[in-house]
Amino acid sequence: MRIGLICVPGLGRCRMNFLRGVMGGQTAGPQPTEAETIQKLCDRVASSTLLEDRRDAVRALKSLSKKYRKEVGRQSMDHLINILQTDRTDSEILGYALDTLYNVISNDEEEEQDESEDENAQKQGDDLGTLFTEKFLQDPEHITLLLTLLEEFDFHVRWPGVKLLTALLKNQGIQVQGIVLVSPMGVSRLMDLLADSREVIRNDGLLLLQQLTKGNAAIQKIVAFENAFERLLDITIEEGSSDGGIVVEDCLLLLVNLLKNNSSNQNFFKEGSYIQRMKPWFEVGNDNSGWSAQKVTNLHLMLQLVRVMVSPVNSPGATASCQKCMYQCGLLQQLCTILMATGVPADILTENINTVSEVIRGSQVNQDYFASVNAPSNPPRPAIVVLLMSMVNERQPFVLRCAVLYCFQCFLYRNQKGQGEIVATLLPSTIDANSISAGQLLCGGLFSVDSHSNWCAAVALAHALQDNLTQKEQLLRVQLATSLGKPPVSLLQQCTNILSQGDKIVRRGSKVQTRVGLLMLLCTWISNCPIAVTHFLHNQDNVPFLTAQISENLGEDERLVQGLCALLLGICIYYNDNSLENYTKEKLKQLIEKRIGKENFVEKLGFITKHELYSRAALKPQPVFPSPEQMLFDHEFTRLVKELEGLITKAVHKSSEEDKKEEEVKKTLEQHDNIVTQYKELIREQDAQIQELKEKVVSMTTHTEQLQATVSQQQSQIQQHKDQYNILKLKLGKENQSQSNNQGDTQVNGLQTEELSQLREQLEELRRQQTLLQTQLSEKDAVIDSLKSATQAAEGPAGGSDNTELLQELEALKNQVQSHLAEIGHLKAERQELQRRAEAASSDTAHPSDNSSDAAKAELESRLAAQTSETEKLKESRSELEKQLASATSTVAILQTEKSKLQTEVQESKKEQDDLLMLLADQDQKIHSLKQKLKDLGETVEDEDDIDARDQTSDEEDEDED
């Protein structure tokens, strides 16, 4: 960097004096203030024609910009921006201008100020940064100019440009993001920073991209498709993965920005096989000395990155595919190894448990694998048991216990197999006294003196029963030995005993968490399980205890317990099957009206959803509590309350008559549903039969067309054979005549008289045979003519009428099928109308009149009777259709048989005709040969025409004589 002066006569002295004044040198006269000095420097930047003068002035502004930030920013910003536009060829002055702008805009320097400065000074500095940022962004072209400068490779331009843009993003992120997004190749220019060989620029480029991608999905997608994943993973490996420094942390923060709540980037990350490249990050051993603060931070971010991919807030399909990929590539196995490893810091272990939880949540394959994981102990214990031991241990950190609870919940989420295995460890037939099971740990935590253990165990056991009626009934079999000499009691009774014995609750310190946990367990257990409701009501102390709790006027802390008691009592009403005479639905509602009051009961029930912690628990499945005292609600329980609150309120307000009417309507609807089900089955059968008939009709039509085409083809072949026969006969006659005219008389004298006689005899014999063959040929011609006439007759009026009748029958059958389908559709419409009216009648039972109820019932019965009659008609119509179809099928079969016979006769006639033609040809050849021999011997041989003429003359003479 050059800082020399240009030797110009007279000018050097002025410049030196000016700089002395600026930099604090001793000059004669009053010293200028900082504002005046900055004003002079700005004038020099604006008016100097020499580049070196402007450069010196900008360097002086840079040196003053940190201490006199406000004045430099207010007076010089426009001049500095002008320098960026005009002096593009000088990298040194560009660097000074960018550094000055950064010092003015950035708020980072305020952190280095003395601790003696108060908060007002700090706030004033932040306001200055925002003020100057807004001034810089008044023209969006300034950001475009800055992006252009970042293409400069010179370190003195690129590095301060990166820092300046980062400061602008920190102060006005949304506005700068919008400008960069619409700038041509804006994001691509910033991505080039990751490829810079100078680490300081690359590292600051990571910070810049972190600010750029915050909360902007469009920029996140562009950055991802600019090969950001590949480059960031490469940098992470180059820097040492989890053992790396702060650069690895920056890469991981940027990856989290790109993937969090961005389904497109998550899918791109998975499809690019980048999940597989995360597995080496978690290859950590049992070395207790290798956990530096930076490594803990890096590994925490790596686990967070895994959770981003399988978060419950993602779409179920995307989460499931990522879970499958993590199992297949071995990432889940690696996480479970860390889970069971020793020497892992508590915060990493907690985050790892949460990560494993979401990797297995709702994935049957991953849940099965997790169930098979054993801790490296002697003897080996399942990982679930080891984790539950930590959950019910009050000496463990609170956040770790919450993480174990979340892991257990995720293991049982939509996992009926796992639920059955957990409940089975509590059943008498599967208890092993020599080993610790999950059920034993849950029971131990449920009845321990630690309220946090009570709550966690109750919620965990409730998740083992979630949406699983079978396990709710199985858990009723669990028996507990309370003390020596006393009979065992059921788990359900023991839970209710703890709730009903108020004096023990007082001795336990009136801990609300214990009672809330037990009440949530009981509500989950007996909901949608009438058998469990019966068992609960069978204990005579339960209902009086609940009514007493609800009716009392207690403090604010007890309102939640009152609301949960109201919910439990409401479940006993709603899912009551009236099997206990003393606690039927009606008697329980009368008890509420007398002891509590309906309005008061509903008000107490509403305390649950109005609680602040209820709304917080309903947001996400993971149990996260700022403090142990706020651990009250479970996410799945909030869903149950939301489902049951309205149903219980409606059930409590109904009168006995309304209940009876509702039961009657339910029975009617059930009967109607049964009828509808029968109709559905009948319609399905009829649809199948109609489809079969349609297929048969189509097949028959096609076969008939094929037969007609075959007959036409055979007729054409017969005509061709007749034509060939006539042509052959004419040809043979012409050849005989031609050969007889061209023969000589050279061999007449060589033959003897005996030979002449033999030849004459043979000639006579051949003539007789020829006559016989001609007779047979005539007969065959007659047969062929008869076949032709029969075929024409089949295609003529008679046959055509048969085919026409068949086609008409088939068309009528199709029309009937269509009519049948229309009737079925009409029946479906009537059924839907009937169901709608039934539902309307059910919904109106809150204030119906007797007349309207009877009318609705009568209308329902009449509609059912009409539907039954219509069904019988449809059955009769279907029988008629089947008969007509059978008749049409037999007619088609007869026609097929007749056509087959015609085809066979035609084939035989064709074969015989061919044989006759061959015989006639041989016979004519022999006759011709013999005639030729006779002529050669000198005998007179008559032609066929002469013989025919002579025979005709003799016949006429015989007629004259007669």
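Above is the first protein from milestone M3; the second protein from the same milestone is given next.
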Amino acid sequence: MNVGMRVRGGFLAALVMCALPVAGTLTVMLLSSPAVAQSVATIEVAGNRRVEVETIRSYFKASPSGRLDQAEIDDGLKALIETGLFQDVKISQTGGHLLVTVIENPVIGRIAFEGNKKIKDEQLTAEIQSKPRGTLSRPMVQSDAQRIAEVYRHSGRYDVSVTPEIIEQPNNRVDLIFTIVEGQKTGVKSVEFIGNNAYSSYRLKDIIKTHESNLLSFLGGGDVYDPDRVEADRDLIRRFYLKHGFADVQVVAALTEYDPARKGFLVTFKIEEGQQYRVASVNIESSIPTLDGNALRSFSRVSVGSLYNAEALEKTVEEMQIEASRRGYAFAVVRPRGDRNFEAHTVSIVFAIDEGPRTYIERINVRGNTRTRDYVIRREFDISEGDAYNRALVDRAERRLKNLDFFKSVKVTTEPGSSSDRVILVVDLEEKSTGDFSVSGGYSTTDGPLAEVSISERNFLGRGLFAKASVTYGEFARGLSLSYVDPYLLDYRVALGLDAFYREQLPNSFISYGTKTIGFSPRLGFALREDLSLQLRYSIYEQQISLPGNLANCNNNPSNGLLAFNPSPAFANLNGFPPGGTATAGGQTATDASGTGLWCYSDGEASLPVRKELASGAALTSSIGYSLDYNTLDNNKNPTDGLLIDFKQDFAGVGGDVSYLKSAVDGKYYAPLVADIVGLIHIQGGILNKVGNSELRMLDQFQMGPNLVRGFAPNGIGPRDINPYGTMDALGGTKYWGASYELQMPFWFLPKEVGLKGAVYADAGGLYDYQGPTTWAATGELTTPSNSNCIRPTTSPPSPGTCTGLVFDSGNTVRTSVGVGLIWASPFGPLRFDYAIPLTKGRFDIVQQFKFGGGTSF
């Protein structure tokens, strides 16, 4: 960093004074010391233009005798110097008077920045102390130059050069110009750990925010050296060890060294792990006579035999203290104490409940929120002015404010109030941009190439609202969606969400038909606990099927053999008839009541259930439902430990054309194993039930493929229309289950920053019990087959009653597969490649061994 100053114009006198110890600072000259003490009234002032005479005299304080001796004159000089108003001050004695001659500092007319491309003028202006129309202070200018260099240093540009220039203008005014040479970003070339035995360096790099530079670093920012980030990483490492039983851990140092050869920083964390402890006992002691400590035991997140976990300890203290406050003990304080057994490597934990000081909150001051409304911040506090001070509730509020993701930094501190039992809470914030505009792109083996343009705002209008609009366009999928979320409905901690959507799925190699869906869905979300949430929703949408012309043209060709059949002997030899037509045989007449020509199978027509949906036209679904989520994952984006369970139910039939009850559960359990290998157990299942006598639509059935058992195509498993003259569409099922075990492991030979992981897995599952429409009967209506395992007859015509269905349901056949995967947490978004080999499958299942999907925002 290079900070200097150049002076243009007529400041020769100032340049001469640079021989003084501090260059460019206020020059003070005492030409002669008065021999006789003076009074304040005898002080004469010369050279002042803007500063009043009495203001200058006021800096000279007379002694109790009313006279000015040498000590008082010296103090006055120092006071004038500290004002920063004067370029030069001279004191002399003449004619029995004290003469103070001043040269005022010029006024800054304009401040400009030259050479800054990476940081805007507005941001630099906010960082410096010198202001237009303010007095020029050379020490302040030097300080401003250093502050600008510091701003660039935090953005990773360590070879920045900042040179302030002072340009003289008429009327004792100057322009202040900061010339900046930004330089290149200084990256982190290596991150190393010393003393880590329990966890590998590869694992610890997941914990910290500082990353090594690589070819794709330009898409992120963690590879730029930032000493504040490195210091924060020390705390992240310490908290990680404390969470996993290492109660004595110390991150002794974070050493940084610039390597000129590699043109970057080398960062080394030195760790002293200590021993890993387990919990030997958990006791609760209350010194408050009327409060039984055991009544709070259910709020403990610490259990005997488990690893010592400082995070669980903190949450236990918080919840116990909040519960005590709810029970009327507003000043109760819970303090944890841990007694270590160094030989057995155990900790005996005691939660001591005491009566704390009776302190009240006098005021809550919020500072730094230039855009976010005050009430958006204050509503995150469960306490307000006048309430008892509760540190646990303050900590919770601070954590909530950080989780809003509206601010770069959040810090809640206390200041003394107007009396000894009053405190003032001070909330210091630094806001950040909360709007996002993204263009996303991706490709998958199911939907083909896909692009999305979206704009979102997490803090809409500064009111803490979320709004998003997105447009999706792809080869086989298109859509538009609008979302709005108010996290505090009517000032209660209840989130109201509104979604409007339009989705279009085009026919592809996996389905013969297209669908169009347009709908609206309001929802309410409740946080029951930090790890448990409930969502209530209502959905109303219209869905319609479309078919390509070649699948709905109903061309009859008797050469194809049996095109349609009917168990009635009178119609046994009919090959079919066009949509809406009639046929007569043996004195009996059959009519295609639905107008779909469902008997037509001559040249590859769509399956009967698909044509039934087409004949029915657009169907309106009106449903209510709920979801219950339990989440203890350590990281939602890249989990390595924890449990995630999602249970949901939807009841359709609140008006509309469709009725059913659909239930589904999805559970994932992650556990770290050895050598950075993570195990994943994935269990899922669902059931679709009829409501009343209504028929289940094909579109409402569960459709499964690689989302249940990898190695199969989308819609590749389960009941299927097996008519060989049709499109053999998957019809779905009303029941499914799936189980998977996966091992995820890093590629240790690759740099951590590449973000590649491998996976091996085994999947098993089943989809069965189709309960939709299937065949054509003499009355022209579709009926459910009496034998769902029916295989289409091969004789032409069939004997009456040979088969009443065209659906093949493999029943309880278990599909299984094994495979390998490649997971890439790339700068282009999460990408995954899977290659799976089915081991067991149904007779008409469709195999797809390779699957790829992923996308990004840029």
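Note on the second protein: The domain at 31-104 is CATH 3.10.20.310 (Ubiquitin-like (UB roll)).
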